[in-house]
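Model the whole thing, not chain by chain.
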Amino acid sequence: DGGITQSPKYLFRKEGQNVTLSCEQNLNHDAMYWYRQDPGQGLRLIYYSQIVNDFQKGDIAEGYSVSREKKESFPLTVTSAQKNPTAFYLCASRTGLAAETQYFGPGTRLLVL
Amino acid sequence: QQQVKQSPQSLIVQKGGISIINCAYENTAFDYFPWYQQFPGKGPALLIAIRPDVSEKKEGRFTISFNKSAKQFSLHIMDSQPGDSATYFCAAKESGGGADGLTFGKGTHLIIQP
């Protein structure tokens, strides 16, 4: 099956801990994205990457970091600097700069213990 | 600054009725307007999309109406069914092929009552 996979489905973070959310796609898409979803807030862009070894900050990048070492993988680390990390995190991808349609993964729900 | 304003925040419609969700934007550089459907605990999925060169696009029971002069677009769901109960997001993207993400509205929680 082609698509975007995110793991884990649920993740618990302790105070002061960094946690990493996985996002993998086998669609051969160039661009990948991370969004944060909070109730009543819509989707807000955290980071995006157009190509391997390149990524750009989105609207709410503070407290997050990413890497893009492989085309198919775009992990997101929620650092201890992110004081309100509880949210639903969505990874997305699209073919390239000329394409508009973004395809979303199933999401990871992050909860703070 | 909210670039795409979506209303209503929640909507209850009787089965068989018409569901209407509205969005407005300010950025005239937007030239792609998709609607996404999201079920609880799942990622959003593209439902239907439109470009400003047409005023209406229909796919099955779903129709987008677009008013370029008013900078507004809306989603109409005809013969609404309980399976349509979900959260709907409008979004917009600027022309020029920029790689940054879509700008989303805050979402509408739609409930179709049997």
